[in-house]
């Protein structure tokens, strides 16, 4: 295991002061980087840990914030914040661009080699950066199969890997089909993995006792591990550390 350095970074976005988590690998050289977006409840220790794990692999990683330092335990409060955000591509892009600027400004970041990974709302933000034409090496979205404005998928300049649970009522088959049709029509190099028997947020261990879950949300440990391996495999393919 390499030595990882972490620090909290504050930056403005969406009228809020965002509180991100930056993880740096050992060394002083410039490294490929990963922008990591959280689920609807917000940035928590699970996503911070994922950023640390990416830094251990050798990437600069920024787990970005979407709620100005808040983490929602009440799903109704979370939906009241997230649903208008998910309906506004420009707001999502602004949040993504603000975090991307922080990541690019880090001296250890190779600004020409950045990927975006997101879960739920964070995955939708990663996709919107692609639809905005941002130069990314890869995009991964887990449980964030949000379709965009007509024709904008053609601006995506990198492979897109998407994942969803087969029993996810929040991302049902019709939404999967619409997402696939959008990617195909845009000429995107895309993949969609459906994890059998998994619910929404299957990748996220429920570590907090104060959190109320929406119906259809649940952890699937085996598929969570598989999805993480798939994400790491995407990075190895599109953002190799040796080049």
From TrEMBL:
It comes from the Bacteria. Signal peptide: none annotated. One of its GO terms (molecular function) is hydrolase activity. The keyword Glycoprotein does not apply. The keyword Hydrolase applies. Residues 20-237 form the Dienelactone hydrolase domain. Keywords: Hydrolase. InterPro entries: AB_hydrolase_fold, Dienelactn_hydro, FrsA_esterase. Pfam families: DLH. Belongs to the AB hydrolase superfamily. This is Dienelactone hydrolase family protein.
